[in-house]
Amino acid sequence: QVQLVESGGGLVQAGGSLRLSCAASGRTFSGYAMGWFRQAPGKEREFVAAISWSGTTTYYTDSVKGRFTISRDNAKNTVYLQMNSLKPEDTAVYYCAVATTGRLSNEYAYWGQGTQVTVSS
Question: In which band, very low, low, confident or very high, does the pLDDT at 51 lie, cut at 50, 70 and 90?
Answer without folding.
Answer: very high
